[in-house]
């Protein structure tokens, strides 16, 4: 009877070890993929891949999104102002 429980414990330990190793590899690959994506994005835009640059990029895209929402709601002046601000922020970043 003791041999059965020894085998059961060893098998359960191997399954847990396999799952943990699988999750470690998954998260390591996700981190590498995210880093590669951000490096490629920054390189194609000609900006540094720093956190500040990426936050400014998100701010500029958010301003353009606000412009699109305003234009879809037929608010022409507000849409133009948001678009001008978004393009200004993105031009500062890219130049």
From TrEMBL:
<protein>
    <recommendedName>
        <fullName>MFS transporter</fullName>
    </recommendedName>
</protein>
<feature type="transmembrane region" description="Helical">
    <location>
        <begin position="7"/>
        <end position="27"/>
    </location>
</feature>
<keyword id="KW-0472">Membrane</keyword>
<feature type="transmembrane region" description="Helical">
    <location>
        <begin position="75"/>
        <end position="94"/>
    </location>
</feature>
<keyword id="KW-1133">Transmembrane helix</keyword>
<feature type="transmembrane region" description="Helical">
    <location>
        <begin position="47"/>
        <end position="68"/>
    </location>
</feature>
<keyword id="KW-0812">Transmembrane</keyword>
């Amino acid at each position: 009877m003791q041999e059965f429980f020894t085998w059961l414990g060893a098998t359960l330990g191997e399954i847990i070890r396999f799952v943990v190793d699988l999750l470690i590899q998954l998260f390591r690959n996700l981190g590498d993929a995210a880093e590669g994506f951000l490096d490629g994005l920054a390189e194609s835009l000609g900006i540094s891949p720093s956190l500040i640059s990426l936050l400014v990029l998100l701010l500029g895209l958010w301003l353009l999104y606000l412009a699109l929402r305003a234009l879809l709601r037929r608010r022409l002046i507000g849409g133009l102002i948001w678009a001008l601000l978004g393009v200004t922020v993105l031009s500062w970043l890219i130049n």
